[in-house]
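Deliverable D5.2: sample structural annotation.
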Amino acid sequence: MKLKFIIFLILINSFLLATEYQINLSWDEFEGECNGFISGSIGEEHAFLSGGGAAEALDGKLISVGEGMSTDAQQVFKINSNDGFFTFWIKDKFADDDMNSDPNLISMSKPMISVFKDGELIDLIKVLQGAGLACKVFTLDASTGEVDREIKYYPKSRIIVGSIVDAVTGDPLRDVKVSITDYMKQARQTITDETGIFVFEVEIGQYKLDISKEEYIGTFANVRMGADETPREIVCALSPEIKEFRIVLTWGSRPRDLDAHLSGPNPDGGDFHIWYRNRYPIDGKDFLDRDDMDKYGPETVTIYKPAVGNYKYSVHDYSNKKSKRSKKLSRSNAQVFVYGQNKLLASFKVPHNFRGNCWHVFEINEKHAIIPINKIKYVKDAVSIH
């Protein structure tokens, strides 16, 4: 019995021991000056570290060894945790000091990142060529060891960059008016270019964006530039003016594929459940205007012919449909906007830090009132979503 108990304790201790991740950053110093930067969260705690100096955060679970303090690489980071999400960036050291205007220096310095899990190499990333003074490289899920590469350049670090598209067609919208207001009530304005993109340079703080275009329903977004000073992205799908209910889903770059599900009363009798695999016309109209399978959205549903009864709207994480413990839907930055009578009626943000692949967002009752649900759970099969 003693031997079995000792073995049991050893197994328990092994399970409780934190996984150690190490991230090494190297570059060609003759071509540029890079700075690694990692931001991450464990539970509700969030922190960030620069690779330039030795520092610790998240109760010592996130560590920067400090530049030149390791023989392994120019900058070394360590994560001692079995949980949490961490995003790794590279910045030009002088990107936000207005001392460097050459957007090619990061690319020219040929950064290389090695990611180790408990001493074993799990990924080797050579940063692709591109232009920008900040580059998002990957996200690490510490609970699984999954490294999700997403090499994307940005012109600077302290920016809010937005993409405005038509909610029904998904086409970029140019000449959209975007006004940004800071906490001092000072406002600036710009318009989107031909690709539907706008950019504001900002300082740390809270901002409100007001977005409008003729013959579209105006909307707004609240964005905070945090102390980590990494680019903030928003995706906004403007709905053409409409009196019926229109439901618009947008999200971030991950997961790649979220699906909208709408169930409710069929005007011709019975009930319907519409999603991308079950697209059938109701009274000659397909309620699912747009299915998006390649990140960001929009995915748009319009109730073109309302009937008496209750409607239910949910979002399914198709990319992680078989994962009971996934938090990726909860971390997707998904938002749902409900329009009707040519105005925004309600908006919802996905609950943060929950496990599951299905977000039950809201219901519409017989009196056409929108009833928030806002819960995440796991569903075995998309057919069962009602």
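Annotation notes: Helices lie at 2-16, 105-108. The first strand starts at residue 20 and ends at 26.
The annotation will be released with the project's public dataset once the embargo ends.
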